[in-house]
Amino acid sequence: MRLGSSWGFCAIKMTDTDFPGIAKRRAEILGDLAAIAETPPMLVAVTKTQSDAALEEILAAGHRVFGENRVQEAFQHWETRRADYPDLELRLIGPLQSNKSEDAVNLFHVIETLDRPKLCRELAKAEQKSGLKRTYLIQVNTGEEPQKAGVAPRDVEALLRVAREQGLDVTGLMCIPPVDEPAGPHFALLAKIAKRLELPQLSMGMSADYDIATRFGATHVRVGSALFGPRDSSA
Ligand SMILES: *Cc1c(COP(=O)(O)O)cnc(C)c1O
């Protein structure tokens, strides 16, 4: 992660966040993405644990696409703000309990963490009840880590079938590679599965490796700490 370049930059401090210059960091990351790919991926700003000041700062910079890990925190961040920003796009990037499906469908435009048949059924019910149609990505556990959410690579096709039978609009795949392995092969695997299943969207790459993910064809990169600074909690 390249946090070094602007640490010494002493801009007028406009907010009380610990990491001044969110707009500047955002511009740098967008520049990185554009330098790598002719069609750069969408930058998803991951706002879990962030302060109101940080949210206001990045909104003021014109950013509108956000990722959140937890349904409840996402409501705290966005429930009132969404009325002021009709072009907001909210993406759930953390695990979803089926009993929170209705809340999730009500708030999020995109749910990136579809990973089991029961969740497909509950989300379909929530769509029917609310009259809202959302977009979904299947989370793939490319490293087949037991503690991690997501379906194994060999089970993606079966889950896609279930999701479509339920009427869910699945447009792509998402992954979080194991922390202790090079990410490239995981991104390559995700891209390969998506291609085979003719799914156009790939959500992959975080602060440490959004550049690599972009080289492997990411359509969405999920960036938190490189934009906002290190998080205090382990969330
Ligand atoms: C927290 C999180 C991110 C952002 O992580 P950074 O390393 O801070 O960029 C991206 N994706 C998921 C699923 C996350 O939970």
Please explain how this structure is put together.
The chain is of the alpha/beta class. 38% of the residues lie in helices and 16% in strands. It has an 8-stranded parallel sheet with strand order 7-6-5-4-3-2-1-8. Strand 1, helix 2 and strand 2 form a beta-alpha-beta unit. The two termini are 18 Å apart. The N terminus is likely disordered. The structure holds pyridoxal-5'-phosphate. Pyridoxal-5'-phosphate (PLP) binds next to strand 8 and helix 10. The site of pyridoxal-5'-phosphate (PLP) has 14 residues, from strand 8 and helix 10.
Structural class: alpha/beta
- Quaternary state reads single chain
Which stretches are low in confidence, meaning pLDDT under 50 for 5 or more residues running?
1-17
What percentage of residues falls in helices of 4 or more residues? 25-40%
Number of strands: 8
End-to-end Cα distance, whole Å, is 18 Å
- Percentage of β-strand residues: 15-25%
- Described by the principal axes of the CA atoms, the overall outline is globular
Identify the strand order in the major beta sheet: 7-6-5-4-3-2-1-8
Number of helices: 10
Please tag this protein with its features.
235 residues; alpha/beta; disordered N terminus; binds pyridoxal-5'-phosphate
Task: Indicate the topology.
Layout: H1 22-36, E1 42-46, H2 52-60, E2 65-68, H3 71-78, H4 81-84, E3 89-92, H5 101-107, E4 110-114, H6 117-130, E5 135-140, H7 156-165, E6 169-175, H8 184-196, E7 201-203, H9 210-215, E8 220-223, H10 225-228
Parallel strand pairs: 1-2, 1-8, 2-3, 3-4, 4-5, 5-6, 6-7
This protein binds pyridoxal-5'-phosphate.
Pyridoxal-5'-phosphate (PLP) is lined by residues 46, 48, 69, 93-94, 176, 206-208, 222-226.
